[in-house]
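Hey, resending since the last one bounced:
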Amino acid sequence: MREQNTTQGSMMQDVIAPGTVMGVTLVALSVIFYVANYDGGFMLLANIFATGATMVYFTIQYRDKKRDGFISYGRSLGFGTLMSLVASILNAIYFVVFVKLINPDYFDIQMDKAAQQMLEQGVNEAQIEAGMKMAKLFATPAFGAMSLILSGVFVGVIIALIVSIFIKRDNYQQNF
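The structure tokens again:
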């Protein structure tokens, strides 16, 4: 049996390409939904499905090709989490390009939508104005990018927790 390289650095090297594929997939979905002018709940489901599908596929590939068919729950979880980190960073870069170059009015549009929703819920004008003033503090490309990275990794960890249950395959002979 070949020696298994178990250093964190090698896992990071192994996760760059799959994480990039996941990130490009998520960016492609964002572009498709933007072009289709759709921002409903299906977007979230599509992103979760794409994240889960790419994570399952590439973690199995990693297990079978780099780990001799075996992977612990923890290593699988780590691999999926790192994939999500790489993908989230790419998604955040796309977001910054999007709000700076493609749709510079993005934050204004989102603020108008939020104000309209509050108005429809019966919130008075003073409260809406105070809410919009507070929201403007966070309506920046940097804050949006950081939020995307944090939320992407968070969702990725949750998906990896579930995926790893089914993908793990312990090598019990390794202990003998």
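Confidence is low (pLDDT under 50) at residues 1-8.

Sorry for the duplicate.
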